[in-house]
Amino acid sequence: MSCPRIEVDLSKIRCNTRTIVERLRSRGIRATAVTKAVCGHPAIARAMLDSGAAGLAEARLSNVQRLRKAGVTCSITLIRTPMLSQVEDVVQVCDASYNTKIAVITALAAAAIKQNKVHDIILMVEMGDLREGIMPQDLGDIAQQVVDMPGVALKGIGANFACLSGIAPTAAKMQALSVLANDVEGQCGPVLRTVSAGNSASLPWAFGGLPTGRINDLRLGEAILLGIDPVSGHQIGGMYGDAFTLVAEVIEINTKPLSPPINFSNPALAGLRLVPKFESGTRTILAIGHQDTDISGLSWPPGITFIGATSDHLIVGTKPETLRVGSEMRFQMNYSALMRAMAAPDIQTNLLHNPPASEVRDFHDPNKHLALV
C-alpha cells in the first residue's frame, strides 16, 4: 500500500457527526459541516451529510468546485469572504456566502443578476476575535443596504470565536449576538433565517443549559473530524479522536551519535570548550517532512522519540530492532497537521468503511440537505 497516506475511517466520522447533530438538535441548533480541513473531499462530505449535517461550508472555492464536480448538490456556503476576482464563480457554485464588505456584496449581486440567480448573504459580525467582521454599530445600516439590493438576499448573520485572538465564546457574547439579530430585524424586517454562532469552539456553550436565544446554527469541522473541543483540547464524550491516521514509511535505520561533532570555524567559539555528546542511539528516518504536514501536530507512538525534521525527512529515536526499512509508522494528527496533510499532493487518501452508494441515502436530492442560510 502506498506511503505516505492518510487512512480515513468514515464510520467514525459518521458517528461523530450523528453525536453532535443529535445533541445540538435538542437545543434547537443545526450543524453545518465544514470541509475545508479535508479539502472538500466528497466522500467525507457525504459521510457528514448522511449523518445529519444540515449542509456544507467551505473556505476555498476550489474545494466547492471539487464537491460540485463529484455531484454533491446540497447547500454549500462559502465561509471566507469572497474575493472580488471570483464573484462569478462564487455565485455559480455556492448557495450563500459570508460577507463583510458592501463592495464585495455589490459585485456578488451583479454576478447573480447576470446568472439569473439570487445569492444569499450572511453578514459576519465582529464579536472580539478581531479577524473578519462588521463592527456591531454598523451592522444595521449594512444589513439594510443588502435588503434593498437586487440579486442578493439577506439570510443571516454570524460570528467567529477562538480563531485569531483566541477569544472563547461566552454566554454574554452569545446573548449579544441574539440581540444584534433582533436589532437587524427591527430595522429591516423578519429576514434572518440563520444566526450562526461560530465554530467548534462554541460547542461547550451549545451543550450547556443556558438559553440559546436566536442562535440556530454552528459551523463545525474540527469537532466532527477529530472529536475534540479546540479551546480545551479535550476529547468530546462519545466521539472518536482517531478517524484520521497518517502512515509514513521507514527509509533508513542507523545507530548514530545523538549529537554531532562540532567543528568551529570561529576560534572564539572553539575557546568555549563545548563538549558534544557522543552517546549512540538508533535513529529512524521516515519519508515525510515539513512539506507534507505540521510535524509539531503529530502524536508520537509509544516508544518513539522525536529528534528532528526537515522538508522531506522525519527523524525519530527508536528502540533497536523494533523496525526495519520498509516498515510503516502510524501517527494521529491535530487539526493543523490534518489540514496540511490532506492538502499535500504526495499523500494518498485511503477510505475505510466506505459503503456502496446503494447503502447510503441519495446525496443528490437538493431538498434533503439544505442549510437554512
Q: Give me the CATH superfamily of the largest domain.
A: Alanine racemase
- Unreliable stretches covering 5 or more consecutive residues: 272-279, 358-373
* N-to-C span: 42 Å
Radius of gyration: 24 Å
Question: What count of domains describes the coordinates?
Answer: 2
Number of strands: 16
Helix content: 25-40%
- Report strand %: 15-25%
Structural class: alpha/beta
Query: What would the average pLDDT be, to the nearest integer?
Result: 90
Number of helices: 11
CATH level-1 class of the largest domain? Alpha Beta
CATH fold annotation of the largest domain: TIM Barrel
Q: Specify the overall morphology.
A: elongated
Which architecture name of the largest domain does CATH use?
Alpha-Beta Barrel
Q: Main sheet?
A: 8 strands, mixed
Q: Give the ordered list of helices and strands.
A: EHEHEHEHEHEHEHEHEHEHEEEEEHE
Q: Which labels suit this protein?
A:
373 residues, alpha/beta, 2 domains, eight-stranded mixed beta sheet, 11 helices
